[in-house]
Design a protein that fits this description.
Order of helices and strands: EEHHEH
Low-confidence stretches: none
Largest sheet: 3 strands, mixed
Shape: elongated
Distance between the termini: 74 Å
Strand order of the largest sheet: 1-2-3
Mean pLDDT: 86
CATH architecture of the largest domain: 2-Layer Sandwich
Number of helices: 3
CATH class of the largest domain: Alpha Beta
Oligomer: single chain
Number of strands: 3
Radius of gyration: 25 Å
CATH topology of the largest domain: GMP Synthetase, Chain A, domain 3
């Protein structure tokens, strides 16, 4: 993280999943960024540009016969999950608001019926 100096790579970048081919020649790295879609796209472009450097670092760290080529893929699942969580919270808040309104209207309706 500290070795890559590309300003396109967002500091809040996460690798969410890595799938390595059975022959260990290729891998898919799913990338997520806490930020906008543009930031995610810029980060993926920056990582693709830095693939050679990343492969070199990987080769010096992991003892493999072949160092896999890396395909960086944007992962929007976290953003999707956060969006769904916000929607659920909105539905719950709306439901609670409606219940509070109906509860405040119910005693007034009962008093009108008794008179």
């Amino acid at each position: 993280m500290h070795e890559l100096k590309d300003p396109r790579i967002d500091p809040m970048t996460s690798v969410t999943k890595v799938e390595v081919a059975p022959d260990l020649k290729t891998c898919r790295a799913y990338i997520s960024v806490l930020g906008s879609q543009d930031s995610l796209e810029d980060t993926v472009r920056g990582l693709k540009q830095a693939e050679g450097f990343i492969r070199h670092e990987l080769a010096s760290t992991v003892n493999l016969r072949n160092t896999p080529s890396i395909h960086f893929i944007p992962d929007t699942s976290i953003a999707y999950g956060v969006g769904m969580s916000h929607r659920i919270d909105e539905v719950i808040a709306e439901d609670e608001r409606r219940r509070a309104e109906s509860a405040s209207e119910s005693p007034a309706a009962e008093e009108d019926g008794e008179a």
